[in-house]
Amino acid sequence: MRRVLSLFALLLAPLTTAVPGGSGSAAAQTTPAKPAPLAARPLSFDSNRAWEHLRRQVAFGPRPAGSPALADCRRYILDQLKAMGIAAREQAFDADTPLGTIHMVNVVATLPGARPERIALGSHYDTKLFREFRFVGASDGASSTAALLELGRVLKGRKLPYTVELLFFDGEEAVIAWEGTDNTYGSRYYVQAAQKAGTLKGLKAFVLLDMIGDRNLTIRRETTSTPWLTDLIWAAAKRIGHGHTFLDEPFSVGGDDHYPFLAAGIPSVDIIDLDYPAWHTAGDTLEAVSARSLQVTGEVVLEALPAIEKRLLAGH
Ligand SMILES: [Zn+2]
Fold first, then answer.
1. CATH number of residue 125's parent domain
2. Residue 9 Cα to ligand 1 middle (Å)
3. Closest to 219 in 3D by CA, of 307, 166, 168, 143
4. Is-contact 204 156, C-beta < 8 A?
5. Interval between CA 281 and ligand 1 midpoint (Å)
6. What does each C-alpha distance from 97 to 70, 168, 174, 182 come to in angstroms?
7. Is residue 199 in a domain?
8. What's the pLDDT score for residue 315?
9. β-sheet bridge partners, residue 207
10. Ligand 1 mean position to 256 CA, how many Å?
11. Which tens digits make up the pLDDT trace of 198-242?
12. How do beta strands 100-111 and 162-169 pair?
């Protein structure tokens, strides 16, 4: 008890010295230097929570567009967002695919900021359909979706200068093969719908996460991505010691959910590790991914976001 009391006295000491009794210190008296309450301290990315989101998605099994398992996965995403107090809506549409019409549903979550203009963070949550083996997409689908949910929890606790939108896309994967329009159904629909509604011009930047679970994570600069946005993210990675994961080597992804945004003139970047031996194989399971990789990606996005906001506020 004594020890507690003396510690308390120590904590109070700077307060009393910071408020001198003399005149002319009204400002100091009205704004005492008291420690920030716990709730005001910034939250940090918690890979244990992200890992649980990843594990739960994988447990639904293969989750191709139109499947009951994907509907279960979507329900999980919506429930998690609701529990975090984040408003979300379903954006349903019928996609014309080589396998006929497939009902697809994007999930659009919104974190209101000081300005209505928004920055979007995205991921696809479907997994590619393979009939010849069981494909659960631990990295390809689940990892980025898991990170996005955890980013939502952290950002909910931040004061945001721009509104942040979390986009969970359905139908990124080809139902047969990645050619023509057999891919990126959800992101193409989102952009088209926003164009029609006149809301696309309020979207100032788009950051796509895809396949960020690889336990040997290496993220290269995707060359179709917008250079200034890529620069800010890679600089953020270096600042916090993740420069060995975010490599300066260039590579071109050849198509992903950021393409429709780029085509519509929205600055966009793809954070993706395609150098993944388990890609589109039965081996894309929990053993091939790690919580650490989710942590690295989450930290880099959180470090980069204020730099992106600053750049946008400066009117570039
Ligand atoms: Zn894929």
1. 3.40.630.10
2. 58
3. 143
4. no
5. 10
6. 17, 20, 9, 6
7. yes
8. 86
9. 121, 269
10. 9
11. 999 999 999 999 999 999 999 999 999 999 999 999 999 999 999
12. antiparallel
